[in-house]
Amino acid sequence: AAYTGRASAWDLEFLGDRGYEVLSTRSILSEAHRRASAGERVGDVAASVQHNLARGIAVMAIRAAEVRGIPRVALSGGVAYNRAIRETIIGEVRGAGLEIVMNREYPLGDGCISFGQVVWGGSVD
Questions:
Q1: Which of 3, 20, 106, 119 is the most buried (most CB within 10 A)?
Q2: Three-state DSSP class for 17?
Q3: Alpha carbon 118 to its chain's center
Q4: Which residues contact 86 (CB under 8 A, 6 or more apart)?
Q5: Domain locations along the chain
Q6: What's this model's pTM, rounded to 2 decimal places?
Q7: In terms of CATH, what superfamily is 2-123?
């Protein structure tokens, strides 16, 4: 349904959890329910859920990079297989003036995450 819909930007809610910023997916789903109940097209609601989830992920990554003085954000994981989500994140990150990094030699999903875990594990004493 999302493929045929037109996404719109919604207000995003972020929560603090033990010193970490967390996107409130509950608020996104509540807004989706409200809009669907009001008769908004299912495709538009579905596209907006994806779009706003991606925006929230991008906002958190951008903030984390800026706080740490890191000029780039890496995009990987299964969610990166979804073109709409991937392109939204890329656009938001680039729009913030940061570089987006995606590994073209490994799959976007669990294979790349596993590779990253091995690299990190090998670097820890």
A1: 106
A2: strand
A3: 23
A4: 54, 75, 79, 80, 108
A5: 2-123
A6: 0.84
A7: ATPase, nucleotide binding domain (3.30.420.40)
